[in-house]
Design goal:
GO molecular function: rRNA binding; structural constituent of ribosome
Radius of gyration: 20 Å
GO cellular component, one term: cytoplasm
Number of domains: 2
Number of helices: 3
Largest sheet: 2 strands, antiparallel
Helix content: 40-55%
InterPro entries: Ribosomal_uS14, Ribosomal_uS14_bac/plastid, Ribosomal_uS14_CS
Function: Binds 16S rRNA, required for the assembly of 30S particles and may also be responsible for determining the conformation of the 16S rRNA at the A site.
Subunit structure: Part of the 30S ribosomal subunit. Contacts proteins S3 and S10.
CATH topology of the largest domain: Helix Hairpins
Shape: elongated
CATH architecture of the largest domain: Orthogonal Bundle
Order of helices and strands: HHEEH
Length: 101
């Protein structure tokens, strides 16, 4: 089980990303628009830098929904390999048969 503080911090990051997504998208569009002057583009980059760091989507860490484990994460299922193996052994995932030899 992951530390509760890490799981909560990641939840806060997800909320910040949702909150700032429209503003960040607009500023990025302005900063990357070749038709605008360099001053306007640079000003957009400065405003983008003033936004909170945790409002960037790249700072979100995929974590297992059950355990909070950050590694060996299956995106399709939203859980880690350890949780997948456990649920597969119990027969709780339809169509999954855990093999052991």
């Amino acid at each position: 089980m992951a530390k509760t503080s890490k799981i909560e911090k990641n939840k806060q990051r997800r909320e910040l990303v949702k909150l700032y997504a429209p503003k960040r998208e607009a500023l990025l569009a302005t900063a990357n628009d070749e038709s605008l002057s360099m001053e306007e583009r640079f000003e957009a980059r400065l405003k983008l830098a003033e936004l909170p760091r945790n409002s960037s989507a790249t700072r979100i860490r995929n974590r297992c929904e059950m355990t909070g484990r950050p590694r060996a994460y299956y995106r399709k299922l939203g859980i880690s390999r350890v949780a997948l193996r456990d649920l597969g052994s119990r027969g709780l995932i339809p169509g999954l048969v855990k093999s052991s030899w």
